[in-house]
Each structure stands twice: as structure tokens, then as C-alpha cells.
Specification:
- The relative contact order is 0.25.
- By secondary structure, the protein is of the alpha/beta class.
Length: about 120
């Protein structure tokens, strides 16, 4: 299973949300899925500067051509997409959320429940 977070360095709620995804990655629940970030920044250096300042540990990718943004339907930021082990989008969440909070952990667990682990 995979959690994809679409963000931009100029987006305050995005930065807060990425921090909660970092905490989730270190949480016991985080071992059941991969978490990646996708920056839609127009300027690569802005995204890289922010990632360095934030001490990011999860993998982040730069979507300079906005291909992933368009494919995922990121009409507004932040967008978090939960994808099951078979590559099917199970849930899209627009707007910032504290992903390491109890209600978000329950949402992730419920969304991925019954999904077989990738081999």
C-alpha cells in the first residue's frame, strides 16, 4: 500500500501535513505502507531548500512537468492519495490533515483493511 502526498513549498498547510506524514512514517502503523511526497513547485530549488530545512526522511519527488499532479487530480493542495497493494486508488483527501492523529490512523487502517500485502 502507498500514501502519496502532493504538496508545494509555498503552501503552509502542506508543510504542516508533510510533518505529520513524517511522524506517521516512524509510527508502528507506518510499517504497513510506503509514504512518498510529490512537490508541484515551479522552482525545483524552492522544493529542495524546504526539504533540506525540514529534515525530510520520506522519499520526495519533484513533479516539474506536473504530470503526477494532473494524473492524481490535484486541483488544490495539499492532496493525499491512498493506493492499495494492487495500484487502485482507495481514497483521495483534499486539504491538510494530521496523519499521525488517532482519527487519521483509523481512516488509513479502515481504507487499507482487507488489502493483501504487496509481494
Amino acid at each position: 500500500a502507498l500514501i502519496i502526498n502532493v504538496w508545494a513549498s509555498w503552501c503552509g498547510p502542506c508543510r504542516a501535513e508533510v510533518a505529520s506524514l513524517e511522524r506517521l512514517a516512524w509510527h508502528d502503523e507506518g510499517r504497513h505502507f510506503a509514504i512518498i511526497g510529490i512537490s508541484t513547485d515551479d522552482y525545483r530549488e524552492h522544493a529542495l531548500t524546504w526539504l533540506k530545512q525540514s529534515n525530510a526522511t520520506i522519499s520526495h519527488y519533484l513533479d516539474s512537468r506536473l504530470q503526477m499532479e494532473q494524473m492524481l487530480g490535484a486541483s488544490r493542495l495539499p492532496l493525499t492519495v491512498l493506493v492499495d497493494a494492487h495500484g487502485k486508488v482507495r481514497l483521495k483527501v483534499y486539504g491538510a490533515r494530521q496523519w499521525d492523529a488517532a482519527e487519521s490512523l483509523a481512516l488509513v487502517s479502515q481504507t487499507f483493511s482487507g488489502q493483501s500485502e504487496p509481494k
